[in-house]
Amino acid sequence: MAYTLAQKIIRDHLVSGKMIAGEEISIRIDQTLTQDSTGTMAYLQFEAMGIDRVKTKKSVAYIDHNTIQSGFENADDHKYIQTVTSKHGIYFSRPGNGICHQVQLERFGVPGMTLLGSDSHTPTGGGLGMLAIGAGGLDVAVAMGGGAYYITMPKILNVKLTGQLHPWVTAKDVILTVLRMLSVKGGVGKILEYTGEGVATLSVPERATITNMGAELGATTSIFPSDEATLAFLKAQGRERDFIPLTPDEGCVYDEEITIDLSAIEPLAAQPHSPDNVLEVDKIGKIKVDQVAIGSCTNSSYADMMKVAAVLKGKTVHPDVSLVIAPGSKQVLTMLAQNGALADMVAAGARILESACGPCIGMGQSPKTNAVSLRTFNRNFEGRSGTVSAQVYLVSPETAAVSAITGVLTDPREWGEAPVVSMPAEFLARDNMVIAPAENAADVEVVRGPNIKPFPLNQAMPETITGKSLIKVEDNITTDHIMPSNAKLLPFRSNIPYLSEFCLTPCDPDFPKRAKENGGGFIIGGINYGQGSSREHAALAPLYLGIKGVLAKSFARIHMANLINSGILPLVFKHEEDYDAIAPGDELAIENAQKQVAAGEEIVVKNLTKGTEYVTILTASDRQKEMLYAGGLINFIKMQNQ
Prior knowledge:
Number of strands: 27
Oligomer: single chain
Radius of gyration: 24 Å
Helix content: 25-40%
Strand content: 15-25%
Largest sheet: 7 strands, mixed, barrel
Low-confidence stretches: none
Mean pLDDT: 95
Number of helices: 22
Distance between the termini: 42 Å
Shape: globular
């Protein structure tokens, strides 16, 4: 049988199930990564499982999100992560070493391996030929303990690339093209596999930009073959030994296919407030720009930074523009410092940030009121920048750099000759900021600061589930809406009781108070509820507030899994018009809950206030149903170990 590349890796890691789209499978995980925004909770959960040592080939904990230390909270979390990882066999990437996906690509990613990360942009590793998947922290904790990762077998979408990019057109424009074609929900239940003659024209960092933003499609992951470009990248990183060639089998059959002519793409921008609201830069016009931010796990590679430096060299940033640049890793920053490119950036008026996520997650550099901010990031959801009124456009580094000088959104093709940057024959590979775990766990004392609170646990599913409709929200509600993630709240990622006070407040400031007054209840959502970040805090905070179920038109994959992991029912309206029939404050009930869940997919929800009922669909495997009965994955694991 001929297999696609993704199918070949899944086949080689398959623990249970059959590779039939729509059926549940489980796979063995080779590597894991966490970051500090989700990592503290993941390690608290790992500790709760009582496993002494990780069982993966390599697990790495990164500090790259909560790096502003305006109080003790972030530093306390970092110390906890450093000590708990040392005790349990996990490598620790210190603050300043770089963004997890950039460093993982540079130093640890291996073609053909599986990678599970507690960050939605883990698919960045697909640029190296990995099967890299973002998940909730609890799923990552289970994988670190040697447990399989369970997922619905995705369909495989072949994205066939032809032609070659013109000067000033970039990998960012490629993924924006895909987003325009498929939308933010067009990748749900799918793996995007890139093939065709155009693949060979793209370097590994360019491929990683494309797979990184596959997360914005809702895709399970995205993947490129491992070929000569992969070998060149690994060789330059001093990791030639990790290379293996990987391509799809000739004659393999894909579930779907689209073709993109790289030579037909122009410089693009995603307009506010969605990554799929894409238009050509020249059609948007020369709007005045207030801020430009260059970096993030999408566009902070050495090549990206060198092109930006080439544009800025000898120029001065427009007086009305604030330009900030964050190189993606210590490796990139050091190389820029050594070759003079960093000096060119500084001389032009750029403000250099540390190698971290920073503005991408609202951690500093929030724009001014009503500002237009051009960002090379992956998300432009309303308010994500830290300024609700800001208008954020997602663009390539080249478009961002040129616009920073002109002061208006500018098609970089107007600038003149495009800078050409070749991949270096040798990267500066020095892993002195990665701390290996202790050889003897008994020598390590895990340090817990006062901000670290126990994570909430659900109770076993009752016979009847009742509660009010506490809030009704529209389509495309993100995890930023459900559990805001800004500079003020990120330090409290290990403190669910405090975070819960802000749950869904961007939609309704009174939601936490109402949830507590009513002893919990139900959330009513629209299409693609829970898109965006993988943060399981968007499930844990509702759990703490007593949320028993979410009724929505559809769910984003990771958030749906996180709800089930927390023992919260994710129910999809069988008839979308039923969404309109529910009003906030309606008393809802699911009678004979366990029997309904066991009987099949359809769950009847009664509206006691109106005397009506709605049929909903629960898409859950037998294993996930057992988790729901138990009140979540942790309870389920404990029951199995008794």
